[in-house]
Design brief:
Layout: E1 7-15, E2 19-21, E3 24-37, E4 40-55, E5 58-63, H1 71-77, H2 81-85
Antiparallel strand pairs: 1-3, 2-3, 3-4, 4-5
């Protein structure tokens, strides 16, 4: 009897390149998921989740999903953003 090959989904948060607009800097934030089986990549998908916007005296998150997202929630999901915001 053959045993089914196990598949796994690996998910992580990725921050895109900064886009500078006058005194604002915009960072796209996405959830990346990859479906793997026996070490082989079978497929992947990208889900934009938020945009981080920094200004000289302010930083805030804008949700790209139906769910509201606060800056603290985004920083918890993607700790590397703490450096950008200055809350390390």
């Amino acid at each position: 009897m053959k045993t089914p090959l196990s598949s796994e989904i690996e998910t992580w948060i990725s921050i895109g390149d900064a886009i500078e607009i006058y005194q604002r800097v915009v960072y796209p934030v996405a959830r990346i998921s990859a479906l793997k089986r026996c070490g082989d990549l079978l497929g992947c998908w990208i889900e934009p989740i938020a945009i981080l916007i920094t200004e000289p005296d302010n930083a805030y998150a804008v949700s790209l999903t139906k769910e509201e997202i606060k800056l603290d929630q985004l920083l918890a999901m993607a700790p590397s953003l703490n450096e950008i915001v200055g809350r390390a």
